[in-house]
Design a protein that fits this description.
alpha+beta; two-stranded antiparallel sheet; 2 helices; extended
Length: 111
């Protein structure tokens, strides 16, 4: 009987905590999407200058697609490399703005 009471008490404490963890995780995933800046709101020079000044920026290139663009490899994780990136801007459909980070052995080496 005592064991059942402990089990019930523990379950009642764990479920709300688990719910909070799930909600926090979903909020973290939605965070970058909600805070994105549209690449088309900048001219090519403005977008490139933003990345040069900040070092790393999340830019949306469409309503559903965004990525993190960096100035150089120092803004990537130790096992990542950089590849050049072009995005659409207000004045240029293929503006070179900097680089994105990728893991060479996981990404198929796309360049």
């Amino acid at each position: 009987m005592k064991e059942d009471a402990v089990k019930t008490c523990t379950t009642r404490r764990v479920r709300p905590a688990l719910g909070l963890v799930i909600v926090a995780g979903l909020a973290a995933l939605a965070g970058p999407a909600a805070a994105q800046t549209q690449s088309r709101s900048f001219t090519c020079n403005q977008a490139a200058a933003l990345i040069q000044s900040k070092g790393a920026v999340v830019l949306a290139t469409s309503p559903t697609l965004y990525d993190r663009y960096v100035r150089d490899r120092t803004f990537c994780v130790y096992d990542q490399d950089t590849r050049p990136e072009w995005v659409p801007t207000r004045d240029n459909p293929q503006c070179f703005i900097g680089y994105s980070c990728y893991v060479p052995y996981r990404d198929g080496g796309r360049r």
